[in-house]
Amino acid sequence: MKSIKIGIAGTGVVASGVVNVLKRNQEEITRRAGRGIEVAVVSSRTRSKAEALVGTGVEIVDDIMAVARHPDVDIVVETMGGYEPARTFVLEAIANGKHVVTANKALLAEHGNEIFKAAQDKGVTVAFEAAVAGGIPVIKSLREGLSANRIEWIAGIINGTTNFILTQMREKGWTFDAALKVAQELGYAEADPTFDVEGVDAAHKITLMSALAFGVPINFKAASIEGISKLAATDIAYAEKFGYRIKLLGITKRTPDGIELRVHPTLIPESRLIANVNGVMNAVLVKGDAVGATLYYGAGAGAEPTGSSVIADLIDVTRTITADPEHRVPHLAFQPDALENIPMLPLSAVKTRYYLRLTVQDRTGVLANITRILADHDISVDAMLQTEVDDTTKQTHIVIMTHISLESSVDAAVQQIKALDTVTGDVVKLRVEELG
Amino acid sequence: MKSIKIGIAGTGVVASGVVNVLKRNQEEITRRAGRGIEVAVVSSRTRSKAEALVGTGVEIVDDIMAVARHPDVDIVVETMGGYEPARTFVLEAIANGKHVVTANKALLAEHGNEIFKAAQDKGVTVAFEAAVAGGIPVIKSLREGLSANRIEWIAGIINGTTNFILTQMREKGWTFDAALKVAQELGYAEADPTFDVEGVDAAHKITLMSALAFGVPINFKAASIEGISKLAATDIAYAEKFGYRIKLLGITKRTPDGIELRVHPTLIPESRLIANVNGVMNAVLVKGDAVGATLYYGAGAGAEPTGSSVIADLIDVTRTITADPEHRVPHLAFQPDALENIPMLPLSAVKTRYYLRLTVQDRTGVLANITRILADHDISVDAMLQTEVDDTTKQTHIVIMTHISLESSVDAAVQQIKALDTVTGDVVKLRVEELG
């Protein structure tokens, strides 16, 4: 059978992973797909870069739109990242009847509904396994492997940079700044690490999984996002005393009132497998009503892990390329006319357990005041820890683990607690998920 | 679109999981598949059992062959287990142009090549996600999600009964017999537990994954199988002193000389995620050349987890039911005409690390003799532990962890060591896998 021809926009890390793995495993890939997959054209403004990537036998163009419109190309691979020109490129490729494979979570979290609609109308596929959790086939598992289930929730370590930083903070007792510096030196964090450390990248990914899990349109604006840049090593240590690890989790949950969608540092019982996922590794825990909890673990980034997912998509698209669109797996797991508009919940409506750390002056009645305020807000205490009084400052830390409470009640209680004149400084509030 | 009609052979645990989940999640399943999936006929020799399962609106037949030949049925679900009449039923269904979904690993490990050939010739699909690791979509991940990779090895905890027993032995210090008794009381082990505890069930599953990973025919006869019934709690405790856990692993590995296929109790570093998979849970670790190590974790058995995988297969088959067979994912991951005949290695050719436990008399020169024999066989020692001398027996245990050695050399050395008159009783030999 004739080889499938692909066109690649971009010559960066993802492109190199795709090209190298396609070349190295050419024979096995052909044995699986039933036909070859060949790079026909690559775009780059710097010709030498493209030649370094694909050699001299492949057409090189300087305009990405020439890839989107190339008459020989069956599938385009978008590896540029970011919103533009990626969006224009993908839409142009679709308009030209090309299938698209992309690793671009930012693009899909912001413009996915528009892109999938255009693809649907044109009868082409936009595949994006590599957009979430790198090499882990979690999109496929969620969309196809667990398709019998009513998904209850997803919780994922889906950003390797922050997981590396948190692992260093815990293992070495480092501050966030110290751990970030090492991550940057090792190439695990970018010079401007904002997207990663503030949770935006994780939010893009959990937004996509939320849509797949619950059959709702992609709704990035509904995500509540809190990163790890303000997390203190102290809280990691206290959490450990209660038997918990702190991870940056992307969480989406179906509740009777609507869908929760949030990213924040989270305490997880240390006995959970996902609490032991360290370094730059990713893991996604999915709870279905029939299957129970399943976990998917692996490399969340890097040239070849990402290339692995891009090529898996290329093989999937290759298999169905001449089939009716109706035979294909729908982009968002559910048929496009079967998406629902379940309300997205604000963070204030979240119900979970909370970790609170207060800095207080060592005076009688402090604890009584605090527990009274908590009780007034229907917040019951599961465990408490008070540190020794610091000789110099005469201050002490009180750490409280609550039972399940309503976020807005906790916020109101925290406001009142902060107003107490025995409570100094800020009150640290972290969320706890049992993931049982 | 018209609903897909299925026929179910059997009314046991798997059938009940399939029927209940299909009913409960009917609406979501239809939203995903684009059409309904309906039970049209069920076979049972006891009518009341079938009625308890599907109610009175569904046709009930007493002959399974009536399901295989039923004119309304698009897909048959085989839930009987075992070799016969399952094999005859599946072949008859295929001959009648029905697609087949099955959870039957024994059947496919023994007769898979014949069954897939028949399906291929007839242009129908035989889907078997539920045959390996219950609800975990590991067949799909291996066959589609990791299709870009040259798979290097797979190591899986793929039998819940033995993992439950091993967990109890470690946590409570119980003997195998005591742990088995509890497993039987809890319904995790059958009255005759041979298939599970002797590793046969795990061997069926790793045999299927081996074929999928390496593009070779199914070859159950090539599997080396060792169960856990002879495992002593002592060795679990000693392993722990070296920082290892003992798990029953199914292992298949590609080496330059051929393919290893084996099931045996295995020491794994306790820091590995898979070493911390406890109770009845399953997990499969897959190493690909591009993606690195990925892990898939979840429930390996039970009505609804198994039902989850059966229904995922039903949805997959439903999607491609009117498509050309060429658009489908090949049964064994590789195209049927692209399977290779890579040699399967005997256990004697395996190279790995070994744990040896000797019971010796406390006399001078014992250790010198043992280490000389090991050195003579090119086996170098990584770590050693000697217990205190028992006052009554004057005996002591010597536990040795070797570097990577050849199994046949280790066996030869063990024979010589056993012949020493200072060595009493048997020498315990366990394999160690770093899984790094």
From TrEMBL, chains A, B:
L-homoserine binds at E190. Pathway: Amino-acid biosynthesis; L-methionine biosynthesis via de novo pathway; L-homoserine from L-aspartate: step 3/3; Amino-acid biosynthesis; L-threonine biosynthesis; L-threonine from L-aspartate: step 3/5. It comes from Ephemeroptericola cinctiostellae. The active site is at K205. PANTHER family: HOMOSERINE DEHYDROGENASE (PTHR43331). The gene is hom. Keywords: Amino-acid biosynthesis, Methionine biosynthesis, NADP, Oxidoreductase, Threonine biosynthesis. Belongs to the homoserine dehydrogenase family. CDD domains: ACT_HSDH-Hom (cd04881). Gene3D superfamilies: 3.30.70.260, Dihydrodipicolinate Reductase, domain 2, NAD(P)-binding Rossmann-like Domain. One of its GO terms (molecular function) is homoserine dehydrogenase activity. Residues 355-435 form the ACT domain. The keyword Transferase does not apply. InterPro entries: ACT-like_dom_sf, ACT_dom, Asp/hSer_DH_NAD-bd, HDH, HDH_cat, HDH_CS, NAD(P)-bd_dom_sf. This is Homoserine dehydrogenase. Pfam families: ACT, Homoserine_dh, NAD_binding_3. Its EC number is 1.1.1.3. It comes from the Bacteria. GO terms for biological process: methionine biosynthetic process; threonine biosynthetic process. NADPH binds at K105.
